Amino acid sequence: MAEMYYVGVDVGTASVRAALVTREGLLRSTAEEPISIWEPQSDHYVQSSSEIWEKCCTVVKKVTQGTERSQVRGIGFDATCSLVVLDRSFQPVPVNQDGDQQRNVVMWMDHRAAEQAARITNTGHGVLNRVGGVMSPEMQPPKLLWLKENLKESCWNKAAHFFDLPDFLSWKATGSLTRSLCTLVCKWTYCPPEGWDVSFWSTIGLEDLLENNASKIGSVVCSPGSRLGDGLTREAAADLGLDPGTAVGASLIDAHAGGLGVIGADVKGFHLPCEGQPITSRMAMICGTSSCHMAISERPLFVPGVWGPCLSAMVPDMWLNEGGQSATGRLIEHVVKGHAAYTQLQEQAQQRFPFTGENIYSYLNSHLSLMADSCSAVDLLASGLHVWPDFHGNRSPLADPTLKGMVIGLSLSQTLEDLALLYLASVQALALGTRHILEAMKEAGHDIRTLFLCGGLSKNALFVQIHANATGLPVVLPDQMEAVLVGAAILGACASQDYSSIQEAMGRMAKVGKVVQPDNELQSFYERKYKVFLRLIAHQREYQALMKQR
C-alpha cells in the first residue's frame, strides 16, 4: 500500500514554509519562500495576502513534487495572527495611508493601535478577563478600531471581510467562511458557546461589525482540525498542485500549531517529571521572532497578564492560557547586529565555518565557551551584566506595551567579547522572562513540570540550556525540529479522518527528540539573577513616575 501523507503549511513573520509529513509525523520534504514586510511608518508593519497565498502555492508544489496527488490525504494551515482586509468581491483593501491595494494585511507585530488598545482596556469590560485584564495592541479589536478611526473612507467603508490570516488561508483553500475557534477566541474576544459579546463591540464603537449576523468577522465557527467545506476547491487545488476535494483542516495560529506539534508527545522512558501526569503538567514554548508560552488546563484558570482561558483554542475541550514575549529572536538579532563588533563577528564566523553553513550564533556560543574558565559555566560570565528584555513592550505577565528595554553594566569597550557577553545576558533575560510567566501561571493554579520547546530559537543550544537553567525545569526538544509544520500537518490528518481526534494525532505524530536537564549547580546564581531582573522593572517604573512629577 502506498504511503499516505499530509501537508502542513506555516506562514511565519518573514517566510512561508511547507512540509510533506507521514502518518507517523516524519518530515519527508520541506520548502521555504520569503514574504515581503513593509514598514510605511513607525510601528506600522504590513504585508500582502495575495503574495502570501502565491508563496503558499509555491512551497506546496515543491514539497509534493514526485508524490502522487492521491497520496496526499489532507492539508492544514497555520499563520501569524495578522489581520487581512478584503472587499465584497474578496479583493484586497489597503490598510495604510499610501493606498497600495496589495498591502492589505496589518501584521501581528504592528503596534499602531496602542492608544486604541489602552482605551479598550480602560472600559474595564468583562471580556478583558479572558485576555489577562489588558487589551494588547497585537489583538484584532484595537486594530479594527484604528482602521475605522483613521482610514474610514479608503479602508473601513470598503471592507466587507476581516479575516485572521489563518482563516484567510483556509477560506482561500476551500471557499468556506467558517472561522477557527483558535483565532476568534484568542484574538477577537469570541466566547463559546455564547459567541460575540454585543455589549463589548458596542462599548468600543464597533457595533457595526455585528450587522448581518456578523458577516464581516464570522458567524460560523469550528474546532481546529475540523474538516472545512468540501475540501480544496478546483481553483485552489490547481494553485496548490493537489486534488480537488483534498481534506482541509480548520486552521491554527502559528504558535498554537507549534504547541500541537510538541505538547502531546509520548514521554515514556525519558524519566521526565511530567511522565504519568496529565498533559496539563506541560508547557509548550514556541520560540521564533517572538515567543509564545502555551499551557492547558481542564478548567478555566485566569492568569493576570496572560491571555485566556480560551476553550478549544488549541486542544479540543481543554482551556488554553497563552503567555508571550513580543521580541525574542528579534531582540537577539537587534542586540547582535547593532553592536560595533558585528562586522568582526561576521568575519570570524566565516573564517571558522567557511563551508559548514554554521551561523553567527553558533560562533558566539563557541566563543563564550572559550571565554569561560574550563571549570565554570558560561552562564556566570554575565554576573555583572543585566538586561530587561522588553524592547518592544511586555506581553506577559505585565501586559504593558509601553515598557522599554534596559541594560545595566556597560563599559566603553566594544570588542567581540563585549558583544558575546551582551548576547549572553540578553538570552538570560529572555529565559528569566519565561520564569516570570511561569510563576504567574503557577500562582493561578497551573502545575507545570516540563517545558517543550520548538521554533527557530530551539535550534540554539545555548538558548535551550539557559532556559532549563533559569527555570529549573527540563526542556524537551522534538524529534522533528520543524514542530510547527508537524502541528499544521496534524490539522490535515484530523480533517482526513485518518485519526479520530487531535489528541490521537498528537500522540502518534509528535515525538521526543532530546531532553536538556537544568544544571542544578547554577540554581543559586539564577535565584540572584532573577532578583536583579525583578528590580529592573521596579526601577523602570520608579524612573517613569519620577519623570512625570511636576
Description:
The chain contains 18 helices and 20 strands. It is of the alpha/beta class. The chain has a seven-stranded mixed sheet, with helices on both faces. It has a five-stranded mixed sheet with strand order 3-2-1-5-11, with helices on both faces. Helix 16 crosses helix 17.
**Residue share in helix:** 25-40%
Structural class: alpha/beta
Number of strands: 20
Rg measurement, Å: 23 Å
Question: What descriptive keywords fit this protein?
Answer:
about 550 residues; 20 strands; seven-stranded mixed β-sheet; five-stranded mixed β-sheet
Please sum up the structure shown:
The chain is α/β, with parallel strands linked by helices. It has helices at 49-63, 114-122, 140-150, 152-156, 165-174, 181-187, 198-203, 211-214, 234-240, 254-263, 329-337, 342-352, 360-371, 416-443, 461-471, 483-495, 502-509, 523-548, and strands at 5-11, 15-22, 27-34, 46-47, 72-79, 83-86, 105-106, 161-164, 179-180, 221-222, 247-253, 282-287, 291-297, 307-311, 319-325, 386-388, 406-408, 450-454, 475-478, 512-516.
